[in-house]
Amino acid sequence: MAGLRDIKRRIVSVKSTQKITRAMKMVAASKLRRSQEAIVRARPYAFEMRQLVNSIALRADDATHPLLRKGDGGKIGVVVVTSDRGLCGGFNANVVNGLMRTINERFAERELDITVVGRKGVDLLKRRALNVRATFIGIHDGPIMRAAAHIIDDIVEDFKNGGTDEVYCVYNEFKSAVQQSVTVERLLPFAPENDPTANAAAADDAAGASEEAPLIVDYWYEPNQEAILERLLVRNIRIQMHRILFESAASEHGARMTAMDAATRNAGEVISRLTLQYNRARQDAITKELIEVVSGAEAL
Question: Does residue 169 have an active-site annotation?
Answer without folding.
Answer: no
